[in-house]
Design brief:
The protein has five helices and eight strands. Strand 7 and strand 8 form a beta hairpin. It starts with a strand and ends with a helix. It is elongated, with a radius of gyration of 33 Å. The strands form two sheets. It has a five-stranded mixed sheet. Strands 6-8-7 form a three-stranded antiparallel sheet, with no helix packed on it. The mean pLDDT is 78. It is α+β, with helices and mostly antiparallel strands. The chain folds into two domains: 82 residues, no CATH class; 95 residues, no CATH class.
Length: 212
């Protein structure tokens, strides 16, 4: 992440980001986590500003002295742990994906019931919580393009990962049914043979019995 300049505590529409980093016309806010994370009130202001905001974790370096140049160098070199707090494009994409996601107690394609794959390996998986698995499996969306196509009323193809698993499941179920049919035929033959030998032994016993 390259910045041409970094200014500390620059007033911005009613609040002060910890730092404002610039790269040409592009602006990025920087929040420094020292004793605690950004509180909800400031996060709401950052989100309302709709400016990409990154949080830099300074806790491992508490006690060290950092000036503007050291902070700027660390930001550009990746010397600190960091995460996005606000990213307008990412957030818009998240909203679009969530619009075609649903909570499910079981896989909408029946894959988990058959134990063919864990949800976490599926490209439709998003999260897991008390309401079950949050995924886009029912809609089949695995990308922003898919989500936008669905929102526009256009169908999307079943993800290849799921299609392959479903085909595997169909083959295995067919094989299981075939094995069950064979076992049923074997059981029927065995039962028939048991009846035949039982009746034969009864006839033989009757012949050996005097007066029969």
């Amino acid at each position: 992440m390259d910045f041409e300049s970094v200014e500390l505590e620059v007033p911005w529409k009613g609040f002060k980001p910890d730092a404002v980093a610039r790269n040409g016309e592009a602006v990025t806010f920087v929040e420094f986590r020292v004793s605690h994370a950004v509180d909800e009130a400031k996060l709401a202001k950052l989100q309302a500003a709709a400016v990409p905001t990154i949080e830099v974790d300074l806790r491992p370096f508490i006690g060290a002295l950092f000036g503007r140049l050291e902070i700027e160098d660390a930001l550009q070199s990746g010397g600190f742990d960091r995460q996005w707090l606000v990213h307008p494009q990412r957030d818009r994409h998240k909203i679009e994906i969530l619009a075609v996601a649903r909570h499910h107690k079981t896989c909408p394609h029946g894959l988990m019931k058959r134990k063919y794959a864990p949800c976490s390996s599926c490209p439709c998986y998003l999260d897991y919580g008390e309401q079950g698995v949050l995924c886009t499996g029912a809609s089949g969306a695995t990308s922003i393009a898919d989500a936008r196509a669905i929102a526009a009323g256009r169908p999307v193809p079943l993800p290849e990962f799921i299609a392959d698993l479903l085909e595997k499941m169909r083959r295995n179920l067919a094989a299981e049914k075939g094995r069950a049919a064979i076992q049923a035929r074997k059981a029927a033959v065995a039962a028939s043979e048991a009846v035949y030998w039982s009746e034969l032994r009864a006839k033989q016993a009757a012949r050996r019995t005097p007066g029969a």
